[in-house]
Amino acid sequence: MEQLTRREVLKGLGAASLGAAAWLTLRGAMDASPNPQRKRVLRIAHLTDIHVAPEGVSVRGLIDCLKTVHEMPDRPNLILNGGDFVSDVFAQNEQRARVLFDLWTRLIKEHCQIPIRHCIGNHDVWGWDKSRSGCTGDEPKYGKKWAMEALGLEKPYYSFEQAGWKFIVLDGTFSHGNGYKARLDDEQFEWLKAELGRTPATMPVLVLSHMPIVSACALFDGENEKSGDWVVPGAWVHIDARRIVELFYQHKNVKLCLSGHIHLFDRVEYNGVAYICDGAVSGGWWRGNYHQTPPGWGLVDLYDDGSFEHEYRSFPYPAPTGG
Fold first, then answer.
1. Which of 12, 106, 190, 212 has the maximum number of C-beta atoms within 10 A of its C-beta?
2. Integer Cα distance of 292 and 16 in angstroms
């Protein structure tokens, strides 16, 4: 698909802001490969920040998004769920959490035939805001346990190999008072070091996280400059990004890091690694665009030479309802 001009992009963004089913594709100009003999080995749909709930239009939106992915003539072989798949259980009681997790499970069972791998987002962690959820912390499914059960995960972070690529799925949500910070604890960081250390240097690596490790769009999520200096909260971007970036620098086979969380679309190239924040299926929490980014999902093609191509795609987004 050819790259859109700036005028075409702005036109598409304007249509999406009206709540219409605007069809928009944004493709990175840096995806061209000098290797004409390369072969695509895997096509991935990255769906993040879905925020499904029984109220409003999110159920219809998720179904329409999954339908769009499944009906592609050359449809993806794998879906990566980037987290925040429910909205939300962080500050909800047990009854509400059960409604949301059951809804997600039913929708995926009924509308998704493509294999799916999952990442846990901050809104998927049950009860950490104890003042609002009423949790004590002693509940059997407290914290990430319920999300892990709903997603069929043994651990909140893991790795797997497919089509000659290594995939590393991180868990970056850690409690901080009644909130959270984006980071890895020492145990997970040591696991990440070991995982990269035992991966052959010839095997390309894709890292999936909910919160971005490196991001430019986080500067614009809120009024981060109002103090007179840029101040980006540690709940928005990994507060331990420095040591993660330094680790990746030692492993040149780390090619791509996918994330969500900010609901904005950007791509940052740093030390030979592409960091893509892939917007949000929910857009502005099912109310249309979020700032300049329309609702959408990432289409990623992986190749046998360690290169990739990425597009940010829209879908028939339902018109928001209510106030």
1. 212
2. 10
Per-residue pLDDT tens for 167-194? 999 999 999 988 999 999 999 999 999 9
What is the distance between the alpha carbons of residues 225 and 120, in angstroms, rounded to a whole number? 29
Residue that the structure tokens 């999406």 belong to: 16
pLDDT at 18 over 80: no
In a domain, 67, yes or no: yes
Domain coverage including residue 138? 40-313
Tally of structural domains, the chain: 1
Q: Which long-range contacts (CB under 8 A, 24 or more apart) does 73-77 make?
A: 74/43, 75/43, 75/114, 76/43, 76/44, 76/45, 76/114, 76/299, 77/42, 77/43, 77/44, 77/114, 77/115, 77/163
Confidence band for 87, pLDDT divided at 50, 70 and 90: very high
* CATH number, domain with residue 236: 3.60.21.10
Report the C-alpha gap between 64 and 58 in whole angstroms: 10
**For residue 263, what are its two tokens?**
């609901």
CA of residue 235 relative to chain centroid, distance: 15
pTM score:
0.91
Q: Tell me whether residue 230 is in a domain.
A: yes
Helix (H/G/I), strand (E/B), else coil: 23? coil
Rounded Cα distance between 281 and 265, Å, is 11
